[in-house]
Design brief:
This protein is mainly α and about 110 residues long. The protein has helices spanning about 25-35, 40-50, 55-60, 65-75, 75-85, 90-100; strands at about 10, 20. The chain folds into 2 domains: about 1-40, no CATH class; about 40-110, Orthogonal Bundle (434 Repressor (Amino-terminal Domain)), CATH 1.10.260. α2 runs antiparallel to α3 (about 55-60) and α4 crosses α5.
């Protein structure tokens, strides 16, 4: 049996439109896959509106320098700098290293 969740139903009683639940309960209901799939608005804005690569958008969002990411990923800053250019597609293994350095999943970097 599930424990009672404090929630708010929005809309008329005969035609509810939305339910608001505490964020912690949402995460439990959605599972970790739903949480991992979310992308912060700032990253989307930097990528879509300002035209930055996803690598640069994530790095900017995480407030890291190119050197910070490169060192954590085990690559040179110069190599990482080249990968941040729009249209560049790093190897999958390299993306995995960069994703770990940024604290995100590789899927977050493969939206292009």
């Amino acid at each position: 049996m599930n424990a009672h969740i404090k929630h708010q139903i929005i809309g008329p009683e005969d035609d509810p439109q939305y339910v608001v639940v505490p964020y912690s309960e949402y995460l439990k209901m959605a599972g970790t896959d739903a949480f991992e799939a979310t992308i912060p608005h700032e990253v989307v804005e930097l990528h879509v509106i300002k035209g930055l690569s996803l690598l640069r958008a994530w790095r900017t969002h995480k407030d890291m320098s190119q050197d910070d990411v490169a060192k954590k990923a085990g690559i040179t800053q110069a190599a990482y700098s080249q990968m941040e250019k729009p249209g560049i597609k790093p190897h999958e293994a390299t993306l995995e290293k960069i994703a770990r350095a940024l604290g995100i999943t590789k899927d977050h970097l493969m939206l292009d």
